[in-house]
Every structure is written in structure tokens, then in C-alpha cells.
């Protein structure tokens, strides 16, 4: 069977490959008591390291392609109430965890974590890092939308303790970004990268292929420019067209999505370009430099993946997640919080688990 025929045969929407069983097998029979018992039991299970995830759901402007659990930016008082609830949820879980365990990862996702006042992020980092010790070189990472960050904001992230920033570029072609309702970077990427590298911050750059307005040639130009900036890691996400989940994607459908064969070529050209510039493929969509810890782990059979993404066995931890829709990935169970922001805040304020 030809490659194009195989792609056509298996080009079907399926649950994400980040977990097994996948999210469509989750159910509501897992009670609050079950959750607390599972957290307590996790202290005796492996992996023993701690991995924390904090979900910030707000976005100043919703990108049409987004399949994440994102919501339009709320008023200042709602954002403050939400962040206070996140801190309260964390305070209910930390006493259940063995203080001898060490933090391997802290990760902020969204939404747009960098769209809220950044002092909230610093406060949460301080709360976690003052409670537990850390492994050598823990990963404290955040997903960043460069469309809203000044140089002052980037420095605030440094001061908050982050050592890895994932910059959501998506495409250098501003016509593509406009169609997708995404703001381009506020600062030149060169300036951002210089600032972060000066402060010893590892740099990820994220891209999406399969969007309206993209061609094989235009996306190849985007990737060529990206490798010139030489990020530590580069990710090329395949656009997932699921308008039954995100109706905004119908706007992209009307704008005209690239053909399947063109999308396949975008990926194959990316693999070729990354390889010619010394990057090594990790899994389906990640590329890293040869001396990256992920590549070393891959060669040694120590590569792992959790809800935070690819990681080494050294940084692997059970994931304790906070915020709306956040999924805790414990050795004995998965548990996901409610989707509703008002319900989440109300439950936490009543001292209940928001799952």
C-alpha cells in the first residue's frame, strides 16, 4: 500500500495518545473520598517524585484552532477569585503528600498562563518550592503566548523561578495567524531568545501545521527560520480539526484547510529540515538537539511521557493537577477537575474536591 493510501486510511480523529486509558473512558464514579485515598496511597507508589500541573484557562483572544480547555478572559475580580481558589486547592492537597518526596516538574498550561498578572504564578511556585525539596535540575516550565509579553514580563517569569519557556509561535506567517485569530509576537523572537538565554532559560518553540493559509512552501520557510533561532526543543503539532468540540474551528473550515497530502508533506519536510540542522526526533512531533536530556534518555531506554509531555525517568513524577479540567495522573488512578469555572471556585471555597 502506498504512503498516501495509508495516510488516507488512518486519517481519522482519535483520542490523544498522552494517556491510557484515554480521556473518553473517564467516568464520574470516582468520589472525593476515593481521590483523597488515592493521593494518600500515592506516597507509597512509584514514581516517587512529584510533578505539579496548574491550569490557567483564560485567554485574551481565543485562537480558532484551539482544542484546549480555554475560556475568554474574565474580569479582574473573577481571575483573582480563580487564582485564589487554585491556591486553596493546592493547600488542601499538600498536607496529604509526604514531605520527603521531591519536586521533579512544575508545569503551567492553559489557556494562556502568561495572560494573568504574573505575581500569581510566582506565589504558587513559592508555595510549592517552600514545601518540598527538588531533584537536581527540576523542570519548572510554562507555556507562553509571545503576543502579550513585553521584556518586563519575560523578566518577571525569570524572577518567578521558571527555567523553561515554551513559546507558542505557531507560524511566522502573519496572514496565517490572522486567519486563525492569533496575535503575532509582541517582540522580535530574536530579542526574546537572547533575553531568555542570558538568564539560562531553556527554550521550546511550538508550531502548528495544517492551518488555512499554510502551504508546503510557506511552512517550510517557517521551520527554516525557526532552526536559525536554534531553540533547545521544537514541537510541530498537527492541527486537529474537531469542530464538534470547538465550533470556532468551523471558521477555519470555511477559510479552507490544506489537503491531507499537503499536510503530510509539511510534516515530512519538517523532519528533513530538522534532521539537516542536527535535531533528533522524539516521538511523533518533538525535535531536540543531540545533547538534550530527552535524546540521551531515548538512547538509554529511559524516555517517558506523562501529561506534562516527554520527560526522562529522572524527571518522571506522579502528576498532581490543579485548576479547572486539570487531570491528576497518579499511579493508581486518573482524576479530572470540573470544566466549570464557577463550580470549581464554589467547590474549592467549600473545602470540597473540584473533581
From TrEMBL:
- Which reaction does this enzyme catalyse, per its entry? coproporphyrinogen III + 2 S-adenosyl-L-methionine = protoporphyrinogen IX + 2 5'-deoxyadenosine + 2 L-methionine + 2 CO2
Cofactor(s) the protein requires to work: [4Fe-4S] cluster
Localization, per the record, is: Cytoplasm
- Can the keyword Lyase be found in this entry's annotation? no
> NCBIfam families per the record?
hemN
**What is the recorded function of this protein according to its Swiss-Prot or TrEMBL entry?**
Involved in the heme biosynthesis. Catalyzes the anaerobic oxidative decarboxylation of propionate groups of rings A and B of coproporphyrinogen III to yield the vinyl groups in protoporphyrinogen IX.
Protein name (database record): coproporphyrinogen dehydrogenase
Q: Which organism is it from?
A: Bacteroides reticulotermitis JCM 10512
Amino acid at each position: 500500500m502506498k504512503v498516501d493510501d495509508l495516510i488516507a486510511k488512518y486519517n481519522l480523529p482519535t483520542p490523544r495518545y498522552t494517556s491510557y486509558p484515554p480521556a473518553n473512558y473517564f467516568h464520574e464514579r470516582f468520589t472525593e473520598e476515593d481521590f483523597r485515598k488515592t493521593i494518600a496511597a500515592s506516597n507509597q507508589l512509584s514514581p516517587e517524585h512529584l510533578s505539579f500541573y496548574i491550569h490557567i484557562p483564560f485567554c485574551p483572544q481565543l485562537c480558532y484552532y484551539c482544542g484546549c480547555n480555554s475560556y475568554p478572559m474574565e474580569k479582574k475580580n473573577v481571575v483573582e477569585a480563580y487564582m485564589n481558589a487554585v491556591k486553596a486547592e493546592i493547600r488542601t492537597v499538600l498536607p496529604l503528600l509526604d514531605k520527603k518526596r521531591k519536586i521533579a516538574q512544575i508545569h503551567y498550561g492553559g489557556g494562556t498562563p502568561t495572560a494573568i498578572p504574573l505575581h500569581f504564578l510566582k506565589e504558587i511556585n513559592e508555595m510549592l518550592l517552600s514545601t518540598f525539596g527538588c531533584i537536581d535540575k527540576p523542570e519548572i516550565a510554562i507555556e507562553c503566548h509571545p503576543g502579550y509579553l513585553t521584556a518586563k514580563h519575560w523578566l518577571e517569569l525569570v524572577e518567578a523561578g521558571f527555567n523553561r519557556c515554551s513559546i507558542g509561535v505557531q507560524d511566522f506567517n502573519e496572514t496565517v495567524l490572522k486567519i486563525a485569530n492569533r496575535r503575532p509576537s509582541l517582540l522580535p523572537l530574536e530579542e526574546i531568545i537572547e533575553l531568555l538565554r542570558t538568564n539560562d532559560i531553556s527554550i521550546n518553540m511550538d508550531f502548528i501545521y495544517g492551518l488555512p493559509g499554510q502551504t508546503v512552501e510557506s511552512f517550510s520557510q517557517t521551520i527554516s527560520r525557526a532552526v536559525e533561532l536554534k531553540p533547545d526543543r521544537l514541537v510541530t503539532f498537527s492541527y486537529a480539526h474537531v469542530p464538534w468540540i470547538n465550533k470556532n474551528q468551523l471558521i477555519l473550515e470555511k477559510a479552507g484547510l490544506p489537503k491531507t497530502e499537503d499536510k503530510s508533506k509539511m510534516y515530512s519536510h519538517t523532519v528533513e529540515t530538522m534532521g539537516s540542522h542536527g535535531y533528533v526526533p522524539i516521538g511523533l512531533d518533538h525535535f531536540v538537539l543531540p545533547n538534550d536530556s530527552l535524546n540521551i534518555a531515548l538512547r538509554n531506554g529511559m524516555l517517558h511521557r506523562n501529561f506534562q509531555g516527554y520527560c526522562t525517568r529522572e524527571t518522571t513524577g506522579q502528576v498532581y493537577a490543579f485548576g479547572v479540567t486539570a487531570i491528576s495522573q497518579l499511579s493508581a488512578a486518573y482524576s479530572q477537575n470540573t470544566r466549570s469555572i464557577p463550580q470549581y471556585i464554589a467547590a474549592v471555597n467549600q473545602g470540597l474536591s473540584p473533581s
